[in-house]
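@channel sequence for tomorrow's demo:
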Amino acid sequence: QVQLVESGGGLVQPGGSLRLSCAASGSAFSIYGLGWYRQAPGKQRELVAGITSSGRTNYANSVKGRFTISRDDAKNTVYLQMNSLKPEDTAVYYCKAGGYGLADYWGQGTQVIVSS
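structure tokens (generated this afternoon):
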């Protein structure tokens, strides 16, 4: 069983930066693949960035070059550094833990609003 708690969301001006954190409780954090998803009002939840247990990363085209996902297995935490934020990045951001043969776990979400 894994519990995930996101933090770091808030209101930021266009062009600004935020760093989201997702802290996990439970065992065997290092074996999980981790991802950040987002859901804007009226839209489907979409994958923003993912990182495998071995550290391989992938990004949605819309955030490549602006967002960076990383993990610290010693702290059971996954991060999403978001730079050059745009109004269209406004959404609730969720972290997810999962992987082949593993159950999926979701956090409760953190709101990001990009507005002047």
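heads up for whoever presents: The longest strand covers residues 91-99.
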